[in-house]
Amino acid sequence: MFVSLIKFLLDPFNVLWLLLLAIVGAWYLRKQRLVKWLAVTSGIWLILVSTPLVPVTIINSLEDRYEPLNVEQMEHPEAEYHIIVLGGGHGFDDRLPANSQLSRNALGRLIEGIRLHRQLQNSKLLLSGSTSTPGRTTQAEMLQMTALLLGVKEESTLLQKAPRDTYEEAEVYADTHGNTHPVILVTSATHMPRAVMMFERFGITPLASPTNYRLLGSWKHKWFGMPTVDNMERFHVGVSSYAAMFRYQIWN
Q: Residue 92, Cβ neighbours under 10 Å: how many?
């Protein structure tokens, strides 16, 4: 219940709606000073979360922690790497091929994993993730089916079908494989700091290969601009990532 409440409050849309409801309540109770205070607070909050400065700063602080992985600069490209592609979500629609059932997030991670796998000849592509619908195709299986459609050989893939989140993905990998292979971790750039922290907690020190960047080129330095929903979504993603890291540090 507490975790659900925190997740609810981390969404800037929800906070804005709560402030607006509070304004209506204060107006109904004829608390004019409170109405003015809440109106000013709502305006400041909207500016902070919907204009670029704060959201861009938060996203950059996450995405800039790890550089994209350049295989040509790796010291031991001949090693038998496990390239771990973390789950990123999928749906179910029997009309569609597997690649169209993956979320954009998951598809971007898989493409990055395949890029590395094709450049590292002795590597295995380890695909991870469970399903929220019992009895249906897991995230790991959907990723594998898509990888096969894109030319990856089945014998070059490994599956982790049980993990439900990043913590479990790291835990299951450490329990199953330990430090028997060097690891490359593939996930979204904003998610990478948390993912690396989880794997290190279980004694695995991965090479990071971030993908799905939210800020590209000049957008990384766009500090001022008009309010947009995209900025609110960036704020939500960034704050949620930091909140998740803080939660794991405190409770696990």
A: 11
- Phi, then psi, of 112 in degrees rounded to 5: -65, -40
Answer yes or no: pTM beyond 0.85.
yes
Residue 128, H or E segment: strand 124-128
Distance CA 121, CA 112 (A): 15
Enumerate the H helices of 65-191 as residue ranges. 98-101, 104-119, 139-149, 166-177
107-153 tens-digit pLDDT? 999 999 999 999 999 999 999 999 888 888 999 999 999 999 999 99
Residues 119-154 as b or e (16 or more Cβ within 10 Å = b): ebeebbbbbbbbbeeeeebbbbbbbbbbbeeeebee
Q: How far apart are CA 51 and CA 48, in angstroms?
A: 6
pLDDT of residue 22: 92
Please classify residue 160 by burial: count the beta carbons closer than 10 Å to its beta carbon, then call 0-12 exposed, 13-18 middle and 19+ buried: buried
Amino acid at position 60, single letter:
N
Nearest Cα neighbor of 102 from 129, 123, 125 is: 129
Tens digit of each residue's pLDDT (9 = 90 or more) over 195-226: 999 999 999 999 999 999 999 988 898 888 89
Residue bearing tokens 């690396």:
196
